[in-house]
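Lab meeting prep.
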Amino acid sequence: MYQYFIAPIIGYLLGSIPFAWLIVKLVTGKDVRKEGSGSVSTRNTVRTAGYFWAILTASLDVTKGFLAAFLVRFYFTQLPVALSDDMSILCTALAGIGAFAGHLWMPWLGFKGGKGFAVFSGALIVLNPYGILVWWLSLPIFLIIIRYSYLGGLSATISAALLGMFFFIFGHANGIPNDYWSDWGVMVHGFGCVVVLLLRLIPDFKAMKAGEIKRWSGMKVSQWMR
């Protein structure tokens, strides 16, 4: 049972690697926390270092989430005695949640971080690649409707979690096997990340209420960078 406690710690440590801070520091000599929005994220890397380095940052952040889930799913839960498939998937979901939280609150940077969507996507590669499609297809829809980038990302994350819940409830209730992806693992991972993200977004909600965060006035993609 110790795996349930160790898995999220493994995820947290991997997720807390501050790639945006490291890349911006090496490339520009600046502290990404003191630039733009102050977020240790891909968006702020674009503002500070440019698109090439932002793409590299996003790729490395996806890798963090992937490695956390992959290592726990196929290595950590197999030693010294392999866990059951259900227990292994639960540990994988917990590792994904841990990686997500690690990116949002990086202990090496005064518990500052980004929004974690790349890390979320990385873990889904192991848990459910179809969930990535749902997240990325629903994201632009929510961005157009809501016109707040962080609320759009939150809504897309909820959509991925609801997908897992839908297949878990209706698939299992009707005895329909799912041989392609872990529906309940996606549900646990998705809703766990939603709860973590809601806690992270409390300051943003307050800023939005105070009028400090403006809703997009149009549909220009460049607004996403602000």
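Slide two material, second protein:
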Amino acid sequence: MKKAKSFTLYFFIYSFMICSLFLSTTLSIHASISTNVKVYINGELMEFGRDANDPGPYIKEGRTLIPFRRIFEALDMEVSWDAKERMVTAIGNDIEMKLYIGKTNAYVNGEEKTLDVPAEITDGRTFVPLRFVSENCGAEVKWEDSTKSVYITLPKVITLPEDDIPGGPGNIDIPVVVEKKLGEKVTYNGMTFSFDSVELLDIPNASEKKLRIKGTTNIEGSTLWLEVYNECHNYVSLRAFAQPSESDTYDFLATLYVSNSFVPSYMYVYTEDNTGKRIKIADYEF
């Protein structure tokens, strides 16, 4: 009888310890995840929870993760899911991005990049790191800790009036491209522009740097496509947007996150004709 009582007591203590350990582990996991995150895109609050298939974002290990379809669709990109490879692919705006579930390596236009937090599947839904995705699509991201809010500002794309589009109707000509140095001007079909600086900005505790390219143009709301190459002829693609101005000169700005090993060497500049065909109009040597 005493043995039976002792066995029962030991079994109770053992069960209690196992339950406590399980509860402690579960609480610790959930303690590292914070929900009720607000996400604003161009000042407009994204709504989540409209149905069972619309989960909201959350914070894990200091990084905001968001349902992959919602963020990529907001960035005007088409998405696909490869169940075999456990891979998300997003394509649009001259960008192709690949992220893998549980892996810290991703690819942007073929260039390998490192994530602080990988994409993951939670409650049957795929989540991706919001800042990485947004910034590598050319958007600006700001975090407000007091309200747990993320503010995403998308690059403004403005279509020029048809008569002003370089290479527009009746104006499709292929220019003779002459190699330029930074600061030298190029004129093509009424557009005069120059690219004046190419910078690599350090990011504390990150495996990437911010590539920032500045220039000027005479046409409001204009956009140019840039291909920036390193000495190994690997390249990244990004767009330069003319910033609002009260004068007749508009600042061009293009930004993109690149790996620490990427060192810009030269750059090709493109515009589009009325059919969407790209035309190379400048070649800058750094």
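Talking points for slide two:
The first strand starts at residue 33 and ends at 34.
Confidence is low (pLDDT under 50) at residues 18-33, 158-172.
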